[in-house]
Amino acid sequence: MRFTRARDLVIPAVLTGLLVHMLLRIGYEQLPPLPPLAGSTLALIAVVEAVFGYSLRARIARRQGTRPVAALTAARAVALAKASSLLGAIMLGGWLAVLAYALPQRDQFPAAGSDTTSAIIGAACAGALIAAALWLEYCCRTPGSPDEPLDDEQRRHAA
Q1: Rounded CA gap, 81 and 8, in Å?
Q2: d(CA 117, CA 102)
Q3: Which of 29, 42, 61, 71 could bridge to 129 as Cys pair (CB 3.0-4.6 Å)?
Q4: How far is CA 72 from each of CA 29, 33, 99, 134, rounded to the nearest angstrom?
């Protein structure tokens, strides 16, 4: 298994964005207005994953006063991070499609103005989820792994 790169998330985001934009072109006028904080749950998940990442990073590095991490816990954290980054990419594509469609339509449809705000908030929250998920995945790397650069203390021990 390899770690997720930001570029791995571009294809799902673009495909979702294209699909959502196409669906909006077909039936936007029949949709109810979006709630302004529709995407805010993604921000909550992002905060939880970022805090979990900081905690996990300290435990994996075996800092004093922390308990070691079981391998299964780290594997589950990586799976959570991979799923969350994919969800964030899909949602980012969807919210950007809503933004791209609703922004120019603000004069034609009264709901498009509030949908623009919802799309901006949703896209920002999806971006935060992607960042937090990639951070959590990064925190699961063991010190000295090929993907992890060594810090000064680790270089001294390796020499």
Answers
A1: 13
A2: 9
A3: 42
A4: 48, 43, 40, 19
What is the per-residue DSSP string for 76-142? HHHHHHHHHHHHHHHHHHHHHHHHHHHTTTTTT-HHHHHHHHHHHHHHHHHHHHHHHHHHHHHHTSP
CA angle 94, 43, 41 (to 5 degrees): 75
User: Which of 39, 11, 133, 125 is CA-nearest to residue 80?
Assistant: 133
pLDDT tens-digit map of 102-126:
999 888 877 888 899 999 999 999 9
Q: Which amino acid is at 85?
A: S
As a whole number of angstroms, the distance between CA 77 and CA 56 comes to 9
**Treating both helix axes as pointing N-terminal to C-terminal, what angle do 10-27 and 71-102 enclose, rounded to 10 degrees?**
40
